[in-house]
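Q: For a teaching handout, I want to show students what a protein-ligand complex looks like in token form. Below are the inputs, and the small molecule is 2-(butylsulfanyl)adenosine. Please produce the holo structure.
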Amino acid sequence: MSDSDDTKLIEQLRKEINLHNYRYHVLDEPLISDYEYDQMAQKLRDLEAAHPDWVTPDSPTQRTGGIALDRFVKVRHPAAILSLANAFNAEDVKGWYERIVRLDTRVTRSKFVLEPKIDGLTVVLHYEDGVFVQGATRGDGEVGEDVTANLRTVKAVPLRIPVHEEDVHVPSRLVVRAEAFIRLKDFERLNKKLEEEGEKTYLNPRNTAAGSLRQLDPKLTGTRPLTILAYAIVDSSERTPATQWELLEYLRKLGFPVTDIAELVDSIDQAVAKIPEWNERRDRIPFEVDGVVIKLNDLDVANDLGVSGKDPRGAIALKYPAREISTTLKEIRVNVGRTGVLAPYAVLSPVEIGGVVVKQATLHNFDFIAEKDIREGDHVMIKRAGDVIPYVIGPIKELRNGSEKPYEPPSKCPSCGQPVEHLEGEVAWYCINVGCPAQLVRNVEHFVSREAMDIDGMGEKIVELVVSKGLVKDYGDIYKLTRADLLNLEGFAGKKADNLLDAIEESKQQSLARLITALGIRGVGEVLAGDLAESFGDLEELSKVSINDLYRVEGVGPNIAKSIYDWFQNPRNVQVIDKLRSIGVWPRGAKERVNKASLPLFGKTFVITGTLPNLPRDQAEQLIAQNGGKATDSVSRATSYLVLGENPGSKLDRARALGVPIIDEAALRRMAEGK
Ligand code: IVH
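A: Here is the structure, written as tokens, with 2-(butylsulfanyl)adenosine included.
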């Protein structure tokens, strides 16, 4: 390539990168994946390295992007909040190692720490005499925004350190760096709630976290499930640990949340050998990760190596392949939810993303389709993150050929054909027909689901069958199903029918909290259902309460109070409740509270690590919870047992270090049975 070709390419890359920087850091509306962006930036860095004379001060390589917005007070960081250089494969990692060995031979004697690269936002937390006094965003790395009030609402941020351990000395001044983010499950829960309430749903966890942190009203931030993980010390009045591994332990001791899947390895070869395992593990991490950070364990050596631009030489981020891909949107279809909300989704030309074939993706709501001008026949970018339902990011308009069809939202419910309605102030469209079969199917599915009445063997297909045959007209009818009814259904043999009838019978013993969850009242999830059960004792009492009584329950605001109140005023619901009572599905709240203390695992806390031979993780947690125990994510002194499976993570080391007893799945089962 000639020099003039290179100058053109450099110019073009700078322009594009500047645009993407602005979209991502300022508007929070990225147009391309981080992976594509990183590769573009890498290309520019390579070209500039080949022509150092052409580097200009305004090149995006000369700053890390993102300017602090004017809305918040600006904060100068006590030391530069550095970024990380990227690697895309094992070769790049080895190249990095060789470069730093050449600079300092002590590198060969250092161990390495592997940490998840959390896809969130850096926050800088200041402590004076152990008190949280200021929190800032990263901004441009030198100056960030003061978001102290917002960070105070994040429960994972310790307001005073040490939080629990006594045997740790706290420096008078300490500045900690952490990543703020939203867990995938929390993100999904938040969106489900918003969808049920007819509100606009969020597009992805990272942008939601960014938006929440920059809320001018901290009360709003407080309603978002933000969390943090700490991984570095920016500044301290005293000497802090000399290795990254000890530093993580030190932060943990002070009470900061710290990842429990970090690993310490002896050499760079071992670090590289771990890469496939980290790639494979990606889907089991409960938050979005966009790579693995490989850090020199020896922090003195890392410090002495200094920085290259804005990147510390002592660490490198190995980026995962993007989980974004383009495909054709064949058709837009609409699903009718439990509360009648119409939810549009895309039927796609099947594509593989990270080993999973994706055929459908959510389109969030009709406003989203209109705002992004998504058309049937469009090429669209889609993204898959962890277990979250894949979603459409937007159309690639440049690839249109004119055959794409603009989309009109339906005016009639796709299930029952009744006109749909739009409620004042909400983005959602609803089917308000109480007899709509799609809603009934969703309601029954919810009623029998694992979090609610937990009727094993009553999957989606069976629910659709019994509803379409007219056997179940409300969920009370589930308890009226007979053996003959079931045997008449397609694919039902004797044993299957008996098992289902047993499961239905057994579900009559479920707690009041579960029954309240099962009713599917808008805004009432498992936690609130538990509080309502405790406060009111049975459904009769709950059905008689006033809106004012409901206000007294924690977590009940005006909308939810009204939603609960209205639900019990609806004559159809009153009928269903009567039906449940006459059948004997009538648990009482107080009874459950007494029983809990007599459950075999009561008062015990478990942490699971690795893959158990027979129980998937969620079922193991359920077994623990149902028998009165608690399953948590990280090992501490409060952990009663570590349940050990195959390929355990660093939780095992930590449990050993703290002397937490280690048991296997069989022992857990025995304990749960009270043996
Ligand atoms: S270390 C000197 N560790 O990735 C410290 N960064 O692409 C340099 N990030 O701005 C950063 N998880 O926001 C580090 N375990 C981790 C991380 C992490 C996520 C973010 C961080 C940084 C970005 C660089």
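A: Two things your students might notice: The pocket of 2-(butylsulfanyl)adenosine is lined by residues 82-84, 115, 117-118, 122, 179, 231-232, 293, 312, 315, 317 (CB under 6 Å). The longest strand covers residues 324-336.
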